[in-house]
Amino acid sequence: MTSKDTRLVPITAKESEQLRQTAITIQLRHVIEEYQNGLPIQPNGTGKELDNTFIINNQGYEISGKVVPEVIYQLSAFYKQRNRAATVTINNYSYSGPEIVFSRGQYYLLFIKQKSQQHFSTLVSEFFHSVSIWQILAALGISFLVCFALAWYLTRPIHQLQKATKAIAKGDLQARAKDFIGKRADEFHDLAEDFDLMADRINRIIMSQKRLLSDVSHELRSPLTRMQIAASLAQKHNQATDDPSNCSHHIERIEVEVERLDELIGELLQVAALERGQQHQQVDTFVVNDLLDVIISDAQFEATANNKEVVFVESPMIHFKGYYNLLARSVENVIRNAIRHTPEGTRVTVAIKDAGPHFSIIIEDEGQGIDESHLDKIFEPFYRPTEARERSSGGTGLGLTIAKRGVEVNDGTIKATNSSNGGLLVTITLKKNRRVN
Questions:
Q1: Please, which pLDDT band fits residue 276 given cuts at 50, 70 and 90?
Q2: Using CA atoms in the order 49, 54, 57, 59, what is the torsion angle rounded to 10 degrees?
Q3: Same fold, 3-130 and 284-431
Q4: 420 to each of 44, 310, 338, 424, how far by Cα in Å?
Q5: Measuring CA to CA, which residue among 403, 392, 383 is closest to residue 218?
Q6: Which of 27, 77, 189, 372 gives a 20 to 30 Å CA spacing to 142?
Q7: What crossing angle do the helices spanning 248-275 and 399-409 adopt, rounded to 10°?
Q8: Would strands 347-355 and 358-364 be described as parallel, antiparallel, or unpaired?
Q9: Element (H, E) at 21
Q10: Strand bridging mode 309-312 / 106-115
């Protein structure tokens, strides 16, 4: 048997039925009897349905003289060894057989040839009869190991990420996914980086909220303490004398502290509203120069009372679409902060710089400036460059925080630097053609 024998598979029921039907047709047409009577048989003369049949006598010859393919003899040898018919597919043709046909005491082997349909079942049958059981088991074993390794490779980083999320859920805000996932160079590494960025952001927000709560508690305690002292002194003076005018000074002090508390609580509410993204106003298109004219006119009144000056440098006309009141409050807070810190006899300069798709509002004072390490922190709530928390400069400590939130709502940025003249320079940068949802 040749190497082609490995492609022989047991015959299907359909092919077996076709063989029997072909054998019946041959007997009805007396094809074999004609051959036994010595009559010539034309290969294609017994009907179209018999053109693709091979009838082999006991000497191994085809009775009509047709050329017999080698595969027919392989099927015959397979039948003698296994005592069962088989089928084989070669070059898109399937050969099936044999079917035993008896005539006048002699037997003949009938084979048929037909166009192969290559059904899935045939392909599977050919596969399983072309390989040994050990080859199948080896392939299954290798597949199992590969699948197990792949599953472990894919699920392990997920379990590591799960450890990081559980650590954060338990309150460990310093837990990071990279500490668990190790060194990788795939999408899980990118996911771990995004997770760590999220964890950093959450940690900063929570720490900011804690710091804000602590600062608010301190800021509220100071005026309340002064109110308690003033009320106590007023009560003592009232008991010591019958003249009510002696208590007026302490009552005025209490009124001042109440006003400060009212201002502080109002600004806290505004910061909270900006943090939640609540603007409570419509988007307008306006001229930035007109907005600055109104703000500087009011600020000039305050500056003149302290022998200071606010100057608006001639600037290009800029149109802007955004939240008018929020931008006005932001600019006003920065200008008022500059007025408080610029010395008497100096001035605060305001200008607009056109930079193509962007424009900047520049506010510069002539004060002492701020240490470089504090420049990024002055926009945090209640932050002061010095450790002492005195109110010698005035304000609630929320003005620049509100300014930053208002600028960010208008899709802009605010930055503080030390100017060349030694003062503080604050730059508010905004987009001209801003899209507003």
A1: low
A2: 160
A3: no
A4: 109, 19, 16, 9
A5: 383
A6: 189
A7: 30
A8: antiparallel
A9: helix 13-28
A10: unpaired
DSSP 8-state assignment for residue 342: S
Q: Could you give the CA distance from residue 95 to residue 97 in angstroms, rounded to a whole number?
A: 7
- Tell me the C-alpha distance between 340 and 396, whole Å: 13
Distance, CA of 392 to CA of 382 (rounded, Å): 14
What is the side-by-side order of every strand in the sheet holding 93-103?
Answer: 9-10, 86-90, 93-103, 106-115, 53-56
358 pLDDT tier (thresholds 50, 70, 90): very high
Q: Which residue has the tokens 């999220």?
A: 198
Q: Any idea which architecture 3-130 has in CATH?
A: 2-Layer Sandwich (3.30)
| CA proximity to 118, closest of 96, 146, 142, 89 | 89
Residue 274, C-beta contacts closer than 8 angstroms, at least 6 positions apart: 326, 402, 405, 406, 409
Structure tokens at 54: 């091979």
> What are the tokens at 57?
């006598």
Rounded distance between C-alpha atoms, residue 160 and residue 182, angstroms: 9
Which residues 6+ apart lie within 8 Å of 202 measured at CB? 168, 173
What's domain 284-431's superfamily in CATH? Histidine kinase-like ATPase, C-terminal domain (3.30.565.10)
Tell me the domain boundaries of the chain.
3-130, 284-431
Query: Beta-carbon neighbour count of residue 373 at 10 Å?
Result: 8
**CA distance readout (Å), 414 to 48, 307, 429:** 93, 28, 6
* pLDDT, tens digit, 9 for 90 and up, residues 236-248: 776 666 556 667 7
Look at the chain and count its residues. 437
Q: Which two tokens stand for residue 160?
A: 């590591």
Q: What's the DSSP call for residue 62?
A: B
DSSP secondary structure letter of residue 159: H
Query: Could you tell me the end-to-end alpha-carbon distance of the chain, in angstroms, rounded to an integer?
Result: 81
Cα dihedral value 369, 374, 376, 378, nearest 10: -70
pLDDT tens, position by position, 392-431: 455 566 778 888 888 988 889 999 999 888 889 999 999 9
